[in-house]
Fold this protein.
Amino acid sequence: MARRPRKYEAFISYSHEADSAFATELQRTLNRIARPTYKWWQWWPPRVFRDQTNLAAAPDLAAEIREALLASDSFVLLASPQAAGSRWVDREAATWCEQRPRDRLLIALTNGALAWDVGRRDFDRERTNALPPALAGVFEVEPLWVDFTAVHAQDGHRSNPTFLDGAATLAAAIRGTDKDRIIGEDARQQRRTKQLVAGAVALLTLLAVAATVAAAYAFIQRNRADERARLATSRQLAAEALVSLDTDPEQSLVLAARAATTAPTNEAADALRQALRTSRLREIVNARAPVVDTAVDPTGRLAAAVLQSGSIRIWSLRTGRPVAKLQLAGVPAERVQFSHDGRRLLGAGKAGVVVWSTDEGTRQPIATFGRAGQPLAAAFSPSDKLVATGDFDGAVRLWRSETGALSDVLRARGMQPVTAVSFSGDGSVVAAARGSEAVLWNLRTRSPRVLYANKNGVWTVAVSPDGTHVATGDTRGGHARIWSLRSGSAVALNGHSGVIRGLAFSPNGKSLVTASDDETARIWDVSTGRSLAELRGHGDIVESAAFAPDGKTVVTSGDDGTIRVWAVASDPIDAELAAPDNRVLRDVDFDERGDRIVAASEDLTAPLWDAHSERLLWAFRHAQGADEWVESAKFSHDGSLVVTAGDDGTAKIWRSSSRTLLATLGQPGDPPLYDATLSPDGRLLATAGQAGAADKAVIRVWRWRRPKEVLTLRGFRGRANGVAFSSNGDLLAGAGGNRVRVWRIADGAPVAVLRGRGELTSVAFAPSNALIGAGSFSGAALLWDLRSKKRIARLAGHSDTVAAVAFSANGRFLATAGHDGIAKVWTVPGGSLVTTLRSRAPLLEGVAFAPHGRRVAVAGAGGRVTVFDCEECRPVRSLVCLAAARVTPVIRAREEDAFRRCD
């Protein structure tokens, strides 16, 4: 049976910020004097509704409020200047006017919680200023006005004659009866109440003990109710944060922080982590007008922008304040750029190019040129001695930047307007977006070369700093491409749905940023064309994008009138380690202090690095054969040893401090070994690999100091891909086929068989030994509870094989590394995604958590190890402070309650 909505005699609409105390007392008084006469033993539900919900996070009127509003006979508005400016009061009034008769509108004119110091104002003028927009000019019948402005917040309302008289007037209007009768009924009711109180005193004395017990019980119940309310509010805010994620990541971050501050639920933590890894916005500069183009100076402290009006302004990115205003003579500017030394700034428009000094004392024009060509684009050469202009007549002209003298004219067939120009890092090549084609000129030969032709048009072009790649952006379809000048091949960048307005390479040439009509910017990996980040937050077309000189931030601008600063990576990179050979790294591990990192390489060695200085210490030479890769490399528990295993069929144990070989287990030519690990006490070595022709054993356990095989464990068909000891050394787990098998070390007795889907690639114990994780060829990682022997989570998110898994030292997180070139971190045991770590390797084979802290190391193709700081791997309360550090200063000041613990 559907619940019947409660009926109310009146609905009080008010400003929570200013009139909360006044509204509370008025509701109590109206509930007392506006209800019908009743006996002392009868209970009447409240007849006057007052909303007590915090609506700040709600996108619209809450369902409960709307239901109460439509179920009320009268609408009482506490009209104050604060209520007039409240969008929530305005929405309530608008809803009332749409659904209810306007002649039941009662307006209590109040100054809110603050008394006026300026004296009494004109009553009619005061009434107009206190009304919300929804009530302006809609009265068919003049509403009842009750003047409460003489009541001050510090006065006792119940004893204030003005308050009591006004309340009686409202009560009479609500009940539709005579005011004097209302006052009389109220007086009689108060006399009866006094008589009842005298009799109740004796009864309460007898029930004192029971009342004490009841009060304690009620206190506990209230605490429980409050806790349930906080949990519900937190989960609601978390849900709203996820809804806002795609449209406004910064608002999503704020809502998630509110959720975590209200109650640190799992839902709040998940929403906060998701918002943190999505929102890369760090600063917003309000230009107050659409921004056509943006440039960042070499210090990364200033941003110059061309406004739609044609003027050029310079802002401080630290303070968000303008520091200079420049103007081209006659017509609007369209492009702006700092010189590479930061001493000059050029602005280009159809009236020509002006080069200014950036000296704060002068900022005087140095040269003016190019008026006849009507330039649509301009750029400094790497030496800053030349300026190239892309002109309306299809030519690219080269000018002396200090004198404005014409140096050269570069032409190609046809007269298509040039909309973008760019120099290579050495200044030997100039590229231009020229109508339907991208054209390159070698400045030594002056001969043009059409790199790319597209009938839909090419709008923008950029050359990488090393001159090996050219990026182009089309005028339709959101297509961008990165061209290799060495091979002539192109990588398509798929993701945008609108015109590519601007693009720029990072200072190291490894990343590209694009700006589009689809209101987003994206960061791409140049070598693979993979999208590294999508920058959402602009409310209109993104016109330009550029890297800051440090390569760690991106600056974008757009038609929404803002300049935005973004972090290139959500999780900072602590170190990037390069092996002597760029062959694929198959495994990676930290030592016990997190100071050193070892990896297994296809170049037959296991390189060892200092994790802090990023210096290669040495490489353990494991094998000699051309195809005998090192498949596994791990430290012992105390870091004194390194064990390597590989395709040559042997496992070797080395002293980590001197690369002295201590033992070799197995014989060269034996079946390949894919994994090897030492027990926590360092006495036993377990290996996993291929079965021999006559022996089906794929997992073996050895005493290595006096080499002796102590356990031969079977149960897999053909091979095992991973092996791991429990943290106490009592158990051993092996992964092969679609199963993880667990044995007891003491006697080799089987403990569990854990079934998965698809062939498993790796296995790891959680520090508590209660959970086991494994990677698989299916693109998912699996989690089992060893006690129940049941699978508790399937972590799906990779598009290719999950080659390795690793638990954090506290057991709360699991890291996975995939052949898709991505590493991910998940919560344990819930399996929620914490963060996505993107290295430059197109394929990852190994992953490891540091023994302390939040660092994660990944290794794979290209012979590189990347070490990330997993900032989202923090406790929930610390995540709130991380969010406070990532939101813009304006938002942090506005959301003081959410971030108050982070000061």
